[in-house]
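Re: the pair you flagged

First of the two:
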Amino acid sequence: MNIKAFLYVAVIGVFTAGCSMAQGTNEAELSNKDRVEQDARQLRIPQGYAKNLKWNLPLDSVGINGSVITWQSDNLAYVSHDGKLMKRSARSESVKVRMTATVTAGANKRTKKFTVKIAPEDPIFNGYLFSYFEGAGPKQTQEQIRFGVSSDAIHWTALNNNEPVLSSVNISSTGGVRDPHILRGEDDKTFFMVATDMFTVKNGWGYNPGIVLLRSKNLIDWSHGIINLEKSYPKLFPNVQWVWAPQTIYDPEVDKYLVYFTVKLKDKSALDFYCAYANKNFTAFENEPRLMFKAKYGAIDGDIVYKDGLYHFFYKGNTKNNDGKEIRNGIQQATAKSLRGPWVEDFKYIDAYSGTGTSVEGSGVFKLNNEDAYVLMYDLYGRLRYEFQRSTDLFTFTKTPETFTKNFYPRHGTVMSITRQEAERLSKEWTGVPAQLLGKQ
């Protein structure tokens, strides 16, 4: 059975790592008629793809009982017979495509129809929003969420005079937050942030219990939830030491938002990625976290980007010798066709500083507006610098790093594209939005 067939029949909402492939009934025990009936009955197009198609459709070609599946689209201008998305709909239109599956075994066949709604084109993005915590200034106020903006992704200006836009006291259990990740929702109207619930200035580096989840409709007002892994899941995390650098990604296979993060237990040296789906209000998990990815030598600061049918998992990894001593670290990546994995590690180092004695962390990848190009940025935390390298395929990156121009000193943040209307909304609330982003120059 191929991996797509497995995804369709997997138990929805329960995320497991290394799970066994679901098995169809023994083909020898089934007639062709039964084989067709069962495979047609189990055939699905995942909900997230069907309700708002932004990607190629994952169409099965073989049923779990061995039947052959062929597909036909009734609108080839939008979706090809093999599921390739040809174009998005105009924002003023609502386009639906009928996909017809024909399931065949021997002389027996059955058809099944699915309706797919084509996602509208992305909004017109005019700039970028940088969510970060500060690396300079009074230490008591550094571990709070701040925003910076840019019209070109290179020259950045802090909002609110580089003062926090959210008070950590109000949104966290420790009084501090680090590593904020910001994400635009699939509806283009909702925004999500997650952050490490950790106040090192007060409590040190020995322990932090969990993460913070935030949700907004306007980028100004945020609701929040606090997840303490040790208290919420005592059997799974009875001795958690660190819960670091959470991030969120939409999973179209189940139409939910997946939150993933690094966990270290007190009695183990491993640094592994765990994940869970957020509830609808984005205030808690709807299921117990599960192991997502275990890098060979451990990893932190994960960042997943989807491109051309492949998920790219960037993280800070390392290499150890036979004695278990770290001999090199830097930004690496693993890839998979599904968020469920399996993840294939590429042990090459991507960042320009690996092996030089200068360490980087907090990798963040974002697409440039109006370009088929991506920026891989990272935090040179020992030097209060942020630098970046470029790529068009997320495999090969420019060798020479470039530097942001900015009036703040960000630590481990992330970037999201924004529209002019969103920039104007931010400008009404806080100072610092450059005139060119507001269309005044």
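Second of the two:
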Amino acid sequence: MSGILSPNEAVKHADTVLASKGRSFHWARHLLGQKHAERATRLYAFCRYLDDLTDEASSTSVARTKLASVREEILNGKSRDTSLSDGLALVRECGIPVGPILDLVRGTSSDLERVCVGDLPELIRYCYRVAGTVGLMMCRVLDVESHSAFPHAIDLGIAMQLTNICRDVVEDASMGRRYLPATLVGDLTPEELIHPDSVVRSKVSAAILNLLHLADEYYKSGEAGLCYLPVRARGAILVASRIYRGIGTALLDREGDCWSNRAMVSAPQKAFLSFTALTSQPLKRSFWSPTAAHCAELHAALEGFTIST
């Protein structure tokens, strides 16, 4: 899609993308005020556009060419592509640093190769690039002023990506990607994950449970940073976190079975999780003020990264 959209058209286009591809976020964003809701919706559409350059390309070579072109357009701050142009307008409007955007592009570019993750640190670095960076950008979108919020925003992004990986094992494997670390599943090929025998199924299920418990540590850290957000935004981000955690809970209840059907949270479950979160968390001191320093161990795998904020 090419051309420049008016502000209203840009928001409408972004909302269509969010409603079709990010239903959990679409639900939660209604808790935001209009300005932040529109910005968050546009940010999702922008990041989804960058991600889809890899997943929806007709070939690897086409994707590489497009990603290289997009990287230059990001550095130049202008584009004739509708989605990218509006994303860059949002970057200027919110003062989003270019570093996290380029890290996101680097992360999506890595999916062009056959993926077989070696260990947990490698997986966490990947999750930072494709999702932790989005947490950083969201801080700017929501007018977060405290730099203390940034590590927690990264952690919430990592947690959600770990959940995605556990839910989408088969879908990813069909594209030649095995994000489950070799330290948990050995040298299994992506193809072996699609129709596993009982031994492989048991090993993969155990790995999923392991990663879901790890994700929970990142969710806890992510939610510990809610106090740095504008008050209304705290509820929206909390609800998004709890709904995504709900996907993990569904997988835990199925003992890591990712083959039967896609784990999801139904509308009634979303309503219940939202109500429970919004009526319980505001009663806790951590919702209003910091109660503990960020756990540096959660970012051990990111040592040496230049994290722009």
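The mean pLDDT is 91.

-B.
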